[in-house]
Queue: 2 jobs
Job 1
Amino acid sequence: MEREKTKEIYNAQEREGYWQKFWEREGINEFDPESSRQLFTIDTPPPTISGALHLGHVFSYTQAEVIARYRRLAGFNVRYPMGFDNNGLPTERLVEKEKKIKGRALPLAEFVRVCLEVTDLYKEQYKNLWKSLGLSIDWRLEYSSISREAQRLAQTVFKELFEKGAIYQKEAIALYCPTCSTSVAQAEVEDNEETSVFYDIAFTGVDGDELIISTTRPELLPACEAVFVHPDDERYAMMVGKTVTTPLQRTVPILVDDKVSMEKGTGAVMCCTYGDETDVYWVRKHNLPERIILTLNGKFIHLEEIPEISSKSIREARNIIVALLRERGAIKKEQQICHAVGVHERCDTPIEFLPTKQWFVKILEKKDDLIRAGERIQWYPSYMRKRYEEWVSGLKWDWCISRERFFGVPIPVFVCDSCEYVYIPDETVFPIDPKLEAEISACPKCGKGGLIPEKSVLDTWFTSSLTPDINNTSPMNGKLAGKLYPMSMRPQGHDIIRTWVVYSIVMGLYRHQDIPWHELMISGHILLQKGEKISKKTGGGAVKPEELIRTHSADAIRYAMYGASLGRDAFYEEQEVKKGKKLIVKLYNAGKLILSNLQDFETDSIRSESELEAIDRWIIARSRATATEMARAFEHYEYSRARLAFEDFFWRDFCDNYLEIVKGRLWSDESLSNAQRASAHYALYHAYLNALTMISPFIPHITEEMYHAEFSDGGVIVSRTDSGFFATREGQKSIHCISWPVVKADILTENEARGVELMLATIAEIRKYKSIQHMTMGARLSSVILKGKTEQRNLLHPFWNDLTFVIRAEVLSFQDENSIDVPDTLTIRI
RNA sequence: GCGCGCGUAGCUCAGUUGGUUAGAGCAUACGGUUUACAUCCGUAGGGUCAGAGGUUCGAAUCCUCUCGCGCGCACCA
């Protein structure tokens, strides 16, 4: 008789949306400012709106998410907000690319309007992804870094720091990106390996002799102000103090400095204004004149001696000059080299050193304080602190916060054109844009000059570094307003330690004389395969998060993200997703088995857990011990370890062993006492509910589904928001509102624990026997004799009936280890 | 060059303060499964814990050195 079983299937994609709507409707993730429970506040990274979402976003955000959910179950009042960093250079670049426009070419108001339009669109995309992943964010706490509130805060802080003397304006050599036409901070410069040509160029000495210098920047020849050699270099000793003439007929001194490397090139180097940081140093140290030949958009100015390069780009000018030098026979050698070049992280353009007037936040004098503050924060993983310290101690520039861009928070400053007085309006008028102020009055100080509005906007990190303050001052904080600083925890990637962590601590020190958070959770990157990083630049390749969720479900993707330990780079493994799917199915099926057998279960059927069968107490104790282990792991942000502990418990102990064992009592007829059956029911109820609870931070949808599941008359599982086998008995509307399981008391004696171990070992022996004999695990054995010590028999005693059932023995008996084997009987030594 | 991290089964990784015979999943081989399981269960094979030296009764774990990989910083004429 063949009967096609109608298999019941958990339709993850459909059910996940159902529960997401339920959570939102019921406010399951909402932060309650009136609650007296202990706070756990999260300083969520506001993602930069700079393009499409990729798997890297999913990876890092799910990591913080699992902690938020755990803390909620552990009884904390969790504040888990989301923000959006939707201004600044990255956003402008996105908008320019998408709309094929140039910010510089548009009226400011028009460009800002387009920026807002585009970022709002992306914001929705981001939000939809977070929601479809089931992130337990309280969306009422959403903020945006370009909002009026954030702008007001940023400008207020600017004024505050300026008045404290922590912000200053200075005309100085700054790191400058000619493509973006803006200054940048040290933290935004990264190294790129680039091929380049190392030219040996002949200069002419006073006596007509040659002096050959080596350079990769021949186009800067017109700005050459000196030639340097090492003081110990005997090759050039004769020429030191004299002058040389460049092939462009510029006569400059030959000086010594021990920063020159004798080995590199010819050992003679030209100093130009400015080719690199050393040039800046030399010009200052040796008091050299400055000849700036580059404009702020990276084009050359008109030069008498070489008019050909006028208004040419760096690359074009280099070609022109090289051709010219070749013609004149001044190039003695050309060598292809590969060297690191400091480039702007947003556009890969080599950074130039140009004199501009910029605003800075003093951080160099704060190095020691910053390092001390870093020591007061718990870093997870702890070695990440080193990176912070390395970066802070290696800082060479104050934090340049002005950007000559458009879509950002305006610097709220007017400067008097006569006495240079810096006028910052009263903060009650913030946010303001000085450029757009119609009325500009006379200077309040000298009364003579006019006030010139500042045109720059703030580095977007200036606002981002204030996220702890943004959270702290949110209108949603109720009676906790202003009491959320420092926050409990900041989750973020290791790549932005040098920016976001550093600047946030800077702000914390200046504004609060305190650290911004107690703990830092630093995550790694997800890689598609060895060496292939998913980042803003690569865009994440073919793996699109939305599509992954659609094909595999959010729970499965989430699960896969928790495989690697915190801080480590991990590979995206399809296999991990498969593993997640299997766990989901397993939870579903185990639930089906349990619900179908527990229909008449009442929570008060057992007066005290001590009444339970030993094996039932064991599985309950195991579930609680696992919860304790997981809790410890979560508290140290070791979610992968928590996941592992769960799998060990659920897959091995609960499904493979306990469920198989307990089936005996579930299926048995009247020969069994009600108490024994009730004991099994009680254990199944609690151990399974504990399992659901413990894994719910990882896979919140399937666990909610099972919490609300009911075994219907038709023999199928139905799950609805307003009902559910567990939901009605627990009296909580969501599994995400119940309490983390805790160890209540020692409910298992030591001997019982040893008995369980012995029992499991015995089961394994029998399974091994059946496997070798090619028997099915359910094959009946007419008689089995366990042979061992009397003590072992006593240990096994409480489990005898269950053991007999699970190995499918008709008769299970015991013999002393020294007795003679009974022929034709299966004898297992224990 | 400096700093950090890593190197454990064919693959991806666990391995808590040094302590029985180093674990898991996947893959492989064999077998079994339909009274939860788009399966699932069982069994087996598979490791010089990168290498060398040291500390110790005892080292994958601690120390030193070497090699390889990754990352950060510096160099970047």
Job 2
Amino acid sequence: MSENTRYNIKDTEAKWQKVWDERKSFEVTEDPSKEKYYVLAMLPYPSGRIHVGHVRNYTLSDVVARYRKAQGYNVLNPMGWDALGLPAENAAMERNTLPKSWTYENIAQMKAQLLTMGLAIDWSREVATCDPDYYKHEQKMFIEFYKKGLAYRKESVVNWDPVDNTVLANEQVVDGKGWRTGAPVERRKLNQWFFKITDYADELLEAIDGLERWPDKVRTMQRNWIGKSQGAQFTFNFTTSPSCHPERSEGSQKPQEDSSASPQNDKPLTVEVYTTRPDTLFGASFVALAADHPLAKQLAGDKDGFDDFIQKCQSTGTSEEAIEKADKLGFDTGHKVAHPFIEGRELPVYLANFILMDYGTGAIFGCPAHDERDFAFATKYGLDILPVVEHGEEELPYVGPGKMINSDFLDGLTSEEAIAAAIKKLEELGAGQGVTKFRLRDWGVSRQRYWGCPIPFVYRESDGACIPVPEDQLPVELPEDIDYDAPGNPLDRHPTWKYTTCPETGEPAIRETDTCDTFFESSWYFLRYLDPNNTERGFSDEASKYWMAVDQYIGGVEHAVLHLLYSRFFTRALKACGYAVTDEPFDGLFTQGMVTHTTFADEDGNWLFPVDVEQKDGNWVTIDGGKPVTQGAVVKMSKSKKNVIDPQDIIDTYGADAARLFILSDSPPDRDLEWSEAGIEGAWKYINKLHRSLMEIKDKLAAKDAPAPSAFSDEGSKLRRTVHQTIDAVGREIEDFHMNKAVAKIRELSNDMVSFDPKDDSDAYALREAWEALVVLINPMVPHLAEELWAELGHDQILADTNWPETDESLLENDTVTIGVQVNGKVRATITLSPNASKEEAEELALADPNVQKAIGGGGVKKVIVVPGRIVNVVAG
RNA sequence: GCCCCGGUGGUGGAAUUGGUAGACGCGCCGGAUUCAAAAUCCGGUUCCUUCGGGAGUGUCGGUUCGAGUCCGACCCGGGGCACCA
């Protein structure tokens, strides 16, 4: 093959990227005459280099975007940077630079990389969340939420590293010690900002049912996270009176919080419990409180073993083996409470390690016959096990529903009826009421960090009043003259930044030095894309009304709960503040699988990069030195295990099209994808082959404007059927995210085309038709190659502006169909007949086959089942 | 422990949802081309076989004319949640 006909991937890809850019092919505006389609890929964190997960994500969104564009939609496919966050601060500390410059350098590098992928992105809408023009609007939203009562301040406990002078996330606390300093973590109370997502708990839960184009997995995870339960909350009265003990602690303890249970002298002592099974109240045999329940210490008095018990409860949290079996541990306080329904019945009160203070009321009643944990506990401590639900053959504990027994006025009712009846009775007695509880907590957004969106409030020094920063003073910008020499939050110790005046009185005031959780930025970035240059508001109502909701959102499943739930809350909160937004931000959601790769390690167990090893005589060795290498498990690519491939190397070597094609064709997008060098080479070969094939056959194709012939040869007709069936199938597979199947269908078609030898004008016409269809079909996957081939086919209009081919209905059906003939369920022959053949014809043809006759043997035919177009099954004797 | 998802050739995966299991690709084998190699092209490739056939979709059982697909029990792998009352 001569040099000038060889497909030059590098030049060709650069050429078409330039054409798209110059023609602004993917820039869009609101166009009421066209139906919109909003494709959204989860925005990347600018870590510096793109990884294969990005390539997979944006290839998928690109296929959808290009496919929908070809179908005539006005497609919005934007991109931006989730640019605030802790890694920038860590990098700044390590490299003695500033988070801002580190971040913007990374953005520039990653953008340059993404541009080589040839994505159909409207770059004019690019957004970086660390830009004050971006966070200005969310500061305004924050204040609007505050005014609506959706944002509030409250004292709450944080993990405090006393050496670094900083707050730690739960993940940064290892064995009770700070991950960096190793210092024991203190629990400190700080004033923190919260968003009232709990106001929307019910609505967010109910609306999950309507998210039909979301994966079931994600919907289930969100339901569980919200964790709605209905039950009864009621009070037990103590029949014993614990002596009021002075605090025995070392004095550093915080005063105890107010609680439902009041330790005051004159009122009788009570404890409030929560249950989802008030129907089983007659089966109650104990009451249990969390070890850190406000009443615990008072109830324990100076009984022996209390300190021991508390210590054990705390240690179960960390010792690994104990968690496995997690023995039920109890501490008998010796005190008793009265059963609310049974005169004279007393229940012992325990402290127990399986009761959590932060769920429900931190106290329960135990019904061992109908609860697993209560059963284990009662067995261990020799408490009564009283069945109150008919359980037939089932062994105790029986947790299912049934008819009530041994339960006085509840006897004979179903569990459901009994729950209602028990709640009614509790209400009559004034002991409690039916309540609904959620696991979901309000969203704490305060972070004691520098590289985040400043929370736009000041506190007046004279009286501590919390005052929102007036709109005309927004944004509250991050100072750039910061230092990382001392531990802690640079904003807090900045010499001037936080000192300001009260906008109302002009008195001295202190700025809030906390910044927002970075989930704040990602909760509305899809709205900013709609109107990225709006300086008055984050986005206009008009833009939102035209583009929202997102038609197809694509990203990793790791955001199944937090990001996706916060965004759903955010649209509702914005709506409450007068913005025009849909309730639900994302109509369709697709979660892609992980990209995995083999791990390699040297003799000492150190991880090795795949680029540093090679295979020699069937064994893996290091390239540098040839030392033996062991091949380990295939796991998600991660820097720590070094099993990463730099996609840029792949793109530089094989081109973006090959990388895209391999990623799409090897595995279904929702499953994990195992990266392999061999796979990428296969994709690369196919790209070259398509180009070569067209170059070879080009002169034999009919002219671009040749009239349709009046008739086609048998081969020509067959090819045309395949073409139209493929057009039909590929569209459906793309819509279902079966990109691997779409690619397979295209390859089948191209195999047929390559072996098709045009003999006359009608064949030449059919083959041109086939090539034109093939190129359009493959465009979403390998757009550079497709543009090149399209131009080779003689078109002036670029492919990015070309519509998806129409299918000819009459060609979707074949004129003959080959079906199997079974004898007693085993295939013995195949027959070919018209798809409209009658059952009788099919039966006749099947029985005429010698192989079928042979299989039937002497027993004769008992019955023949004919499923037209599918199968014939002969039942022989 | 509970809740999902998955298990099909050497390998990634197809199978019109109960109707010819293994599409398409990777790898491998054989051949052509080449001084040679690369690239490319052609053919083969589930396993066993006495070449007639037989077996086969994690295991065992069931329903059906017919099961990868439906039902029951179990085994293995991955993910999520977790003393949630």
